[in-house]
Design brief:
The complex is a heterotrimer. By secondary structure, chain B is an alpha/beta fold. Chain B has 18 helices and 12 strands. In chain B, strand 4 and strand 5 form a beta hairpin. By secondary structure, chain C is an all-alpha fold. In chain C, helix 1 runs parallel beside helix 8, helix 1 crosses helix 10 and helix 8 packs across helix 10. The chains are: A mainly alpha, B alpha/beta, C mainly alpha. At the A-C interface, helix 1, helix 3, helix 4, helix 5 and helix 6 of A face helix 1, helix 2, helix 4, helix 5 and helix 6 of C.
């Protein structure tokens, strides 16, 4: 046991002790945190029969799924398209991608809020006349804001994978008279799969856990982080610990599943023979 | 079952509170609570003798969906909201804000999706000017009786003869002290600010709300709570900046910190003091001798409310005298409605937190509209927080 | 904050120079179709909103709050009114970044160079897993630990009375180091792992002490990783709101807090817009400095190897 080992152990303890505390007190039968009164799973039952929590959870999952799906599709398409783009347009796009990532979430939240407010103020009379109802902020505005950031992330991840791809495979497919779309479907896409999956998961997690952007643009809708934020300010019951523990376990399992999936995909994607594309 | 001789005497305040706590925790049924406290008998008798006390359920047919209620922390009886949902099929989606500024900010940003919200008296004229609230259709609020309201508290809901908001409850802004830790027996705002910088350094909280924080700093000097005078505000700002290093926190959600002992003294609203005292008798409420704030909260419907029918139904329900009385018992703020007061037990009506002594009340000021919107006060607050 | 996670991944996979043109000429139409959805998003949800912010920053506060159209530089001239918020952020953020880097480095060193090869990725993953807990809850945990029922009560038991940690800059520092440690370790790990061991062996053969080979080989070659991690952490700290709000209790005021206050409390939108523009300007200045620094370092590296 060298000092290094001790240090690493201490760091792991430092990282996990607070999380363990949250999980631990979710089983507290007493009402206040840090005030252990005995073991109980009551808070899990209470949390999941709490209308507000269930609704917030559903809203968050809905937004996250929509965000992940949209950003993965749009981002992957964009990464493929950007490969073929040259010159000023390409540089502009690259710059925009970095802007989207570097601008702090709080500014993105504010900017999106202001933009939507101005947009709605101008367009709502027309929209109301046409559709009979006004455009309001809600889950869809949150999704839109989340998708923006995640498109940039997906583009970066997929693009990195694209450039690392072995060109010989694509050329071999072309030599074997594969159509461009066929090549895409049977060569490029499977090789890109790990990056696409990684992008999907990242987009989902980011959207699910985002607080500050949703805080500004969610309107009357409540996401889980917004609910947790209000609870923490008002006085937390172990309900919140229970919800947090469940979310932690869910994300951990998601990650493990993704890891397993990626490992099998990597093994399967090892190109033994370019059998793809032959028609 | 045979009744013991002591079961016929009126219930004492301590027993009342104990039964109330048991009811809140769910250890006893409502029936038991009403029976034991004698409220059931009282209500039945009253209902019989005063026909207007019988609630008129005037819910329109075709109510559905959810009603978005935007309100303050710890301000409603969850039981009442659940009952409303059960009776009408409309779920109540409650969101909570800590200051009128935040509510105003969200309404100005537009498309909030709120159906009912709870503005404080000084905001209503601003909302009306900005076109953010709609005049109330009193025909849809049969349980609201303007004549039964205490006149001191209802003026600001009516602008030029049009009713924009109906009163919910009233209260005061003072400060709460944990008497186990605070032994100096403060009675004034001067005491508050001195203790904050002295023996209670590191244990005092103020609201993250310019109206009360700057207002009560002004009181130390004897200025008006609503002062917009630059020099007076300058003095208040100096005091606040001097106190800031000694504060525990600047937060309108002070109950958790008071409860767990992080803070021993905090600027406080009536109902929070009632709730704290109910659970922890060492919590005492102090109204500064120099004065301070008295306020009324109202129900209002913002323009563009998505579920207007349900909004009116909810307001009407919550203003029904017996429901209103239950609200008072839950949140601990005094009602403006004499009919609700008639249903409250003597102990509640004599509780000095809810109903302070007249001499203390007479010094208090209602907040003014310009006080809220004055950009100088907002700027001072931001500078104070940044200091 | 999972945005940190996304950034870490993105930074780690930033593409190098594109090698070789793709075979075949796909039509410009297809290219346009491929990138147009993303382009639309960037135009309407990035460029447009940021443009609106810039426009608002030249406006005036409406009497009851909000925006009134105008053209004035008053908001930019008034930026010093929030000078304290900028100062707080610009002192605490670098300090927190530095401490995080110092704490993270030995950990990354251990993982990259001392841990058994089989366990390396698992141990690294274990470092990153705390990210999978909601950041709100992790900060809440620290509110409990640093509140009067946590560490101060244990210290009181051994005689150190009345120590207040929560709602101080120290609490925010601890929270920052805790929150961003998982973000700092991977980049340093990556740059240490790429280190050619033979260099160290060669140095040892030539009689260098472990310390001097560390100072002259390992440390300089891992600096790009430290710089990447530091930049990520610094940028995220600059814009943070939740950390100072929860662990500072309203007493520690970052630019993030100033922005939330300006939009949701004092409702001075034009001034808030100006502060946002200033914040973004500072961030981009930081990135430019970082890019120069890292590119400069890489240049040095190439020379050193010759």
């Amino acid at each position: 046991m060298t000092p290094m080992h001790l240090y690493a152990g201490f760091i792991y303890l430092f990282l996990y002790a607070p999380i363990a505390l949250v999980v631990f007190f979710s089983f507290n039968s007493g009402r206040y945190a840090m005030d252990w009164q005995g073991f109980s799973t009551q808070w899990y039952a209470i949390a999941f029969s709490n209308e507000l929590i269930v609704r917030a959870l559903r809203t968050s999952i809905g937004i996250a799924l929509a965000t992940a799906f949209l950003s993965t599709v749009i981002g992957t398409l964009a990464a493929l398209g950007l490969e073929r783009l040259k010159g000023v347009l390409r540089q502009l796009f690259d710059a925009l991608i970095y802007v989207a990532i570097m601008v702090p979430s709080v500014v993105i939240g504010i900017a999106t809020l202001i933009a939507f407010v101005t947009l709605f103020d101008t367009l709502n009379p027309t929209i109301e006349w046409m559709l009979g109802r006004r455009a309001e902020m809600g889950s869809w505005t949150v999704t839109a804001a989340h998708v923006l950031f995640n498109i940039a992330v997906v583009i970066l991840i997929v693009r990195a994978r694209l450039t690392g791809m072995d060109q010989a495979l694509v050329e071999a497919a072309a030599d074997l008279y594969a159509t461009p779309f066929g090549t895409f479907r049977q060569v490029v896409l499977p090789l890109l799969a790990p990056a696409i999956v990684a992008g999907f998961l990242l987009a989902f997690t980011f959207s699910f856990e985002d607080f500050i952007i949703a805080f500004f643009v969610a309107g009357p809708d409540t996401t889980l982080p917004i609910y947790v934020f209000s609870s923490i300010r008002r006085g937390v019951t172990p309900e919140i610990n229970a919800v947090g523990t469940v979310v932690l376990l869910a994300s951990l399992s998601l990650m493990l599943i993704a890891q397993a999936l990626l490992r099998t995909r990597r093994a399967a994607a090892k190109p033994a023979v370019p059998a793809a594309g032959a028609r | 079952m045979t009744r013991k001789h002591w079961e016929n005497r009126p219930i004492s305040a301590k027993e009342f509170m104990r039964e109330l706590r048991r009811l809140e925790k769910g250890s006893v049924s409502r029936r038991h609570f009403l029976a034991v406290t004698g409220l059931a008998t009282a209500t039945a008798t009253l209902a019989g003798s005063m026909p207007w006390l019988k609630p008129r359920r005037a819910f329109a047919a075709g109510l559905s969906g959810t009603v978005n209620l935007t309100t303050w922390p710890n301000y409603h009886s969850q039981q009442n909201l659940d009952d409303f949902a059960a009776k009408t099929g409309v779920k109540v989606n409650m969101s909570v804000f800590g200051s009128n500024e935040e509510m105003l900010a969200k309404l100005q940003a537009g498309s909030t999706g709120w159906d009912v919200f709870v503005p404080t008296n000084y905001t209503i004229s601003t909302y009306q000017q900005l076109g953010l609230i709609e005049p109330l259709e009193l025909a849809k609020l049969p349980n609201y009786d303007a004549a039964a309201q205490d006149k001191r508290f209802t003026a600001e809901g009516t602008i030029n003869g049009t009713v924009y908001a109906v009163p919910k409850d009233w209260g005061t802004t003072g400060y709460v002290i944990n008497t186990k830790k605070v032994t100096q027996n403060p009675t004034s705002w001067k005491d508050f600010w001195e203790l904050a910088q002295g023996p209670l350094s590191g244990r005092v909280m103020v609201h993250d709300y310019q109206l009360t924080t700057i207002g009560n700093a002004l009181k130390q000097f004897g200025y008006s709570f609503n002062s917009n005078d630059e020099k007076e505000l300058g003095d208040a700002e100096k005091l606040l900046i001097a106190v800031k290093p000694h504060l525990f926190g600047i937060n309108s959600d002070y109950q958790p910190s008071m409860r767990n002992g992080d803070a021993w003294m905090s600027v406080c609203w009536t109902g929070d003091a009632t709730q704290l005292h109910r659970d922890l008798p060492e919590m005492q409420y102090v109204i500064g001798r120099e004065g301070g704030e008295i306020w009324t909260d109202y129900y209002a419907v913002p323009k563009g409310a998505p579920n207007r029918e349900a909004a009116y139904a909810l307001i009407d329900y919550l203003l029904t005298p017996d429901i209103n009385a239950k609200e008072v018992k839950a949140h601990g703020y005094p009602s403006t409605d004499q009919r609700a007061n008639a249903l409250l037990p003597k102990e509640t009506l004599e509780n000095p937190i809810l109903y302070p002594a007249k001499e203390l009340l007479s010094n208090l000021e209602f907040g003014a509209a310009q006080t809220l919107t004055n950009p100088l006060r907002a700027e001072i607050m931001a500078r104070f927080k940044a200091a | 904050m999972s945005r940190q996670r996304s950034l870490a991944t993105a930074a780690g996979t930033v593409a190098g120079p594109h090698e070789g043109a793709r075979a075949g000429g796909r039509s410009p139409l297809i290219t346009a179709l491929l990138i147009s959805p993303a382009a639309l998003f960037f135009i309407f949800l990035l460029i447009l909103p940021l443009a609106v912010v810039v426009i608002y920053s030249f406006g005036e506060r409406a009497p009851a709050g909000g925006y009134a159209p105008a053209f004035t530089f008053a908001n930019y001239l008034n930026l010093p009114a929030r000078g304290k918020a900028f100062l707080n952020t610009l002192t605490l953020a670098p300090l927190a970044t530095l401490i995080t880097a110092i704490v993270a480095y030995p950990m990354a060193y251990f993982l990259a160079l001392k841990a058994p090869a089989r366990w390396r990725l698992l141990l690294l993953a274990l470092c990153i897993v705390p990210f999978w807990t909601s950041q709100l809850l992790r900060y809440y945990a620290w509110m409990m630990i640093l509140g009067s029922r946590g560490i101060p009560s244990w210290l009181a038991a051994i005689g150190i009375e009345d120590l207040r940690i929560i709602n101080t800059p120290s609490a925010v520092l601890i929270g920052a180091v805790y929150g961003f440690l998982p973000l700092m370790v991977p980049p340093i790990y990556v740059s240490l792992e790429k280190l050619d061991r033979r260099l160290i062996e060669a140095a040892a053969d030539l009689g260098a002490t472990p310390l001097s080979s560390f100072m002259q080989i390992t440390l300089p070659m891992s600096l790009p990783g430290v710089a990447t991690g530091s930049m990520l952490v610094f940028i995220l700290l600059m814009g943070d709101y939740i950390l100072p709000q929860f662990l500072g209790g309203g007493k520690v005021f970052f630019i993030g807090n100033a922005l939330v206050d300006l939009f949701l409390q004092s409702r001075n939108w034009p001034f808030g817009a100006a502060v946002s523009v200033a914040l973004v300007a500072i961030m981009f200045a930081t990135i430019v400095v970082y890019m120069r620094f890292v590119l400069g370092l890489s240049g040095q590296r190439r020379v050193a190897l010759v």
